[in-house]
C-alpha cells in the first residue's frame, strides 16, 4: 500500500484547521451566554433544518459504511444499499409519526421517555444498557475500525490513529451539540465530496479498463460485466441470502432495524429533539434525501473494485491471509487517487469517523448526565455542574474506548457484524416497547419489561435454535437456509422480525390482563392534529417514496 504524500497531508491539515477553527468560532459566539444543560446537550432551538439533516448523516456514516459497505458491494453488490434506501423511507416515518410525539411531550432523552411513559425502573435499566452498548460496542467499533482504515491508507501506527481520532472527536464534542451540529455540516461536505471523487475515479477506471471513458460508460460496463451485482432482492438460493433474506429487506425485519435505529436511538434522535416540529421534520427529510445518494459513495466503489478484480486487477492487494477480503476494496481505490485528491478523500473518511465519534460521545454524556447523575447521584445539581459532568463523561468514555477497543476482536468479526450482533439481541424488544408505548395507552410497565428482558432471551434462543431443532421445514417459506455445514439457520433479519412479533403479542396479553385488574398506565399526549404535515414536507415525502420505488423497480 502507498502512503500519503506531503500534498495530501497539507490538504488534510487544512480540513482539520477548518473544522476545529469553525467549531471554536461557534462555541465562542455563545460562550458568554448562560449555558443550560438542554442547550449544551441538545442545542435547544438553535439548529437549523440543514444542520440537523447534515448532523444525522454525519453521525450515521462512518468507517463501517465506507469500508464495510464497499466491501459488501464487492461481495454481494447493490443489494446492500437496502440499508440506505430503506433508511430514507424510515426517516419519513420517523418524521411523520415519532417526532410529534417526542416534541409534544417534551422528551429530550430516551430514558426520560421510558420514565415518563412507564416507570423509573424501566428507564434506569435501559439507561445503563444504552451506556454499556454505546461505550463498549458502538464507540469502540467506530474508533477501532476508523483507526484501522486510516492506518491502512496513511501507513501510521493504528494506536496513534486511535489516539488522534479520539482527541479530534473530544475537541469537537466538548463544545456541545451546537458545535457538533454545525461542524457536521462541513464534515458532510467533505464526506460527500471525497466520496464522490473516489466513485468518479472507480467508474473511470472501469471504463478505461474496457477501452472506453467517462463515468456513465463505466457504470454501463459494470452492469454488463457484473449483472448479478445489480439486484436488490435475493432468492433463497443466493449465497448471500443469510445476510439479506429476500422480501424481508422491504417488509420484515429490516423495518424493525431501521425504525429502532432512527426512531428510538438517543444517538440519532438527539439531533432533532431540541428543535420545533417544522425544523425537525425539515432536517429529517433532508437526511432522507442524502440517504438516497449514499450508495453512490459507499456501494458503487465496491462493485467497481469487483469488476476490476474479476478482470485481473488487485489480485494481491485484495488478499488477507491467503483469501480475498472484500473490506480491502475501498482502501485500495483510495490509494489509486492522485496526490492531493487522496488527501481530500482521506479527510472525507476522517470526517465520517470523527463526526460519528462526536455524536456518540455526546449521546453517552447526555444519558449519563441527565438520566443517571441527575436522577440518582445528585438530584440538586446546578446547570453548570451538569455541563461539567457531561464534559468529564465525554473524556472518560473516549479513554475507555481507546483502552478496550484493541481487545474486543472487532476486526476479526467485522465491524458492521460486530455492532449488529450485539444490538440485534435487544432491538426487537426495545422497538416493541417504544411503538406500543407511543400509540397504545393500555401498555403497562410490566409489558415493557417483558419486551426488554424477554426479547433479549428470545433473540438468544432463536440464534442457538438450529443446534437443537431441524429448521428445514421453514425453507420452503424462505425463513431458513442451510449454512456452510448444511445446518438450516434463520437469517438474522428474519430472527429480529419473529422476536418483535412475539414481543408485541406478549405485551398485548400482559397489558390486557393488568388493565383488567385495575393497573393504571401513564399515557402520552397524542392526538391526530399532531401528525398534520405541511405542503412542502408532503411534496418532499412523496418525492422520496417515488424515487425509492423507482430504484427498487429498476434494480429488483
Structure in a nutshell:
This protein has 556 residues and is mostly helical. The chain is built from 24 helices and 4 strands. A two-stranded antiparallel sheet has the order 1-2.
How would you describe what is shown here?
It is globular, with a radius of gyration of 23 Å. 71% of the residues lie in helices and 1% in strands. It is built from 24 helices and four strands. The protein has helices at 6-31, 37-42, 49-60, 63-76, 82-104, 110-117, 120-154, 158-173, 177-209, 215-225, 248-251, 253-263, 266-273, 277-298, 300-310, 329-335, 341-377, 383-404, 410-413, 415-423, 427-439, 445-464, 492-516, 535-554; strands spanning 319-320, 323-324, 481-482, 488-489. α7 packs antiparallel against α20 and α9 runs antiparallel to α17 (341-377). The model has no long low-confidence stretch (mean pLDDT 82). It has two domains: 6-17 and 37-408, Sodium/glucose cotransporter (Up-down Bundle); 424-525, no CATH class. The protein has 556 residues and is mainly α.
Write the layout of secondary structure elements.
Layout: H1 6-31, H2 37-42, H3 49-60, H4 63-76, H5 82-104, H6 110-117, H7 120-154, H8 158-173, H9 177-209, H10 215-225, H11 248-251, H12 253-263, H13 266-273, H14 277-298, H15 300-310, E1 319-320, E2 323-324, H16 329-335, H17 341-377, H18 383-404, H19 410-413, H20 415-423, H21 427-439, H22 445-464, E3 481-482, E4 488-489, H23 492-516, H24 535-554
Antiparallel strand pairs: 1-2, 3-4
Amino acid at each position: 500500500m502507498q502512503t500519503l504524500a506531503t500534498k495530501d497531508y497539507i490538504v488534510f491539515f487544512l480540513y482539520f484547521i477548518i473544522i476545529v477553527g469553525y467549531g471554536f468560532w461557534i462555541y465562542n459566539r455563545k460562550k458568554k451566554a448562560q449555558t443550560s444543560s438542554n442547550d449544551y446537550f441538545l442545542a435547544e432551538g438553535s439548529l437549523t433544518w440543514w444542520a440537523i439533516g447534515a448532523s444525522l448523516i454525519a453521525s450515521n456514516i462512518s468507517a463501517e459504511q465506507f469500508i464495510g459497505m464497499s466491501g459488501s458491494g464487492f461481495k454481494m453488490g447493490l443489494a446492500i444499499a437496502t440499508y440506505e434506501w430503506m433508511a430514507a423511507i424510515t426517516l419519513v416515518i420517523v418524521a411523520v409519526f415519532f417526532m410529534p410525539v417526542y416534541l409534544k411531550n417534551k422528551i429530550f432523552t430516551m430514558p426520560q421517555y421510558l420514565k415518563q411513559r412507564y416507570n423509573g425502573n424501566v428507564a434506569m435499566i435501559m439507561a445503563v444498557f444504552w451506556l454499556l452498548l454505546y461505550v463498549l460496542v458502538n464507540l469502540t467499533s467506530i474508533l477501532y475500525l476508523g483507526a484501522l482504515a486510516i492506518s491502512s491508507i496513511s501507513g501510521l501506527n493504528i494506536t496513534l490513529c486511535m489516539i488522534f481520532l479520539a482527541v479530534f472527536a473530544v475537541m469537537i464534542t466538548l463544545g456541545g451539540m451546537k458545535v457538533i451540529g454545525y461542524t457536521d455540516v462541513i464534515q458532510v461536505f467533505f464526506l460527500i465530496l471525497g466520496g464522490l471523487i473516489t466513485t468518479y475515479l472507480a467508474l473511470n477506471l472501469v471504463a478505461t479498463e474496457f477501452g472506453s471513458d467517462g463515468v456513465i460508460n463505466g457504470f454501463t460496463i459494470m452492469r454488463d460485466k457484473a449483472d448479478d451485482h445489480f439486484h436488490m432482492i435475493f432468492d433463497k438460493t443466493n449465497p448471500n441470502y443469510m445476510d439479506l433474506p429476500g422480501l424481508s429487506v422491504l417488509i420484515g425485519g429490516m423495518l424493525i432495524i431501521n425504525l429502532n435505529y432512527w426512531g428510538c436511538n438517543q444517538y440519532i434522535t438527539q439531533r432533532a429533539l431540541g428543535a420545533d416540529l417544522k425544523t425537525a421534520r425539515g432536517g429529517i427529510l433532508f437526511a432522507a434525501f442524502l440517504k438516497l445518494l449514499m450508495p453512490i459513495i459507499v456501494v458503487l466503489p465496491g462493485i467497481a473494485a469487483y469488476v476490476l478484480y474479476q478482470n485481473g486487477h488487485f489480485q494481491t492487494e485484495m488478499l488477507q491471509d491467503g483469501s480475498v477480503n472484500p473490506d480491502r476494496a475501498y482502501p485500495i481505490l483510495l490509494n489509486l487517487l492522485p496526490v492531493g485528491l487522496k488527501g481530500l478523500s482521506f479527510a472525507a473518511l476522517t470526517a465520517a469517523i470523527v463526526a460519528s465519534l462526536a455524536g456518540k460521545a455526546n449521546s453517552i454524556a447526555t444519558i449519563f448526565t441527565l438520566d443517571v447523575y441527575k436522577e440518582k447521584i445528585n438530584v440538586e445539581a446546578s446547570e453548570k455542574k451538569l455541563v461539567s459532568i457531561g464534559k468529564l463523561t465525554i473524556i472518560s468514555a473516549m479513554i475507555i474506548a481507546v483502552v478496550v477497543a484493541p481487545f474486543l476482536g472487532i476486526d476479526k468479526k467485522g465491524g458492521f457484524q460486530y455492532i449488529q450482533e450485539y444490538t440485534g439481541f435487544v432491538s426487537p424488544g426495545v422497538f416493541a416497547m417504544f411503538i406500543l408505548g407511543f400509540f397504545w395507552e393500555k401498555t403497562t410497565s410490566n409489558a415493557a419489561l417483558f419486551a426488554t428482558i424477554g426479547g433479549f432471551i428470545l433473540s438468544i434462543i432463536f440464534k442457538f435454535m438450529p443446534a437443537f431443532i431441524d429448521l428445514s421445514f421453514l425453507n420452503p417459506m424462505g425463513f431458513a437456509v442451510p449454512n456452510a455445514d448444511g445446518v438450516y439457520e434463520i437469517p438474522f433479519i428474519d430472527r429480529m422480525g419473529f422476536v418483535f412479533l412475539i414481543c408485541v403479542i406478549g405485551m398485548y396479553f400482559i397489558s390486557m390482563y393488568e388493565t383488567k385488574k385495575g393497573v393504571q398506565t401513564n399515557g402520552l399526549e397524542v392526538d391526530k392534529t399532531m401528525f398534520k404535515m405541511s405542503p412542502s414536507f408532503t411534496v418532499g415525502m412523496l418525492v422520496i417514496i417515488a424515487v425509492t420505488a423507482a430504484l427498487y423497480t429498476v434494480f429488483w
